[in-house]
Amino acid sequence: MEHKICFNCRTSEQDVPVVRMSYKGKELWVCPRCIPSMIHEPQIVQSALEEAEKA
Predict the structure, then answer these.
(1) Which of 15, 34, 39, 42 suits 22 as a labelling partner, its CA being 20 to 30 A distant?
(2) DSSP state of 5
(3) Residue 28 CB neighbour total at 10 angstroms
(4) In the beta sheet, which residues pair with residue 4?
(5) DSSP letter at 15?
(6) Would you list the domain boundaries of the chain?
(7) Which is nearest to 37 in space by CA: 5, 9, 12?
(8) Model pLDDT for residues 11-52, shown as the tens digit of each residue
């Protein structure tokens, strides 16, 4: 079974809950610690989103 990992900080669902999201048709996971950055400072997570898009 593949563990779900936050696309931004790489924290596993084994450590914290993660929430499913979609970006450009791709399913990603994000932890609660990274959600505020996505909302208030999206430029911080933009490079992580771009890397996740390539994967």
Answers:
(1) 15
(2) B
(3) 21
(4) none
(5) T
(6) 1-55
(7) 9
(8) 999 999 999 998 888 899 999 999 998 889 888 788 888 877
SS3 10: coil
pLDDT value of position 44: 78
The pair of structure tokens assigned to 20 is 């499913």
| pTM value surpassing 0.85 | no
Instruction: Give Cα 25 to chain centroid, integer Å.
Output: 14
Looking up tokens 């900080």 gives 9
Bridge partner list, 23: 26
Q: Is the dihedral of CA 19, 20, 23, 26 positive or negative?
A: positive
Distance CA 18, CA 11 (A): 9
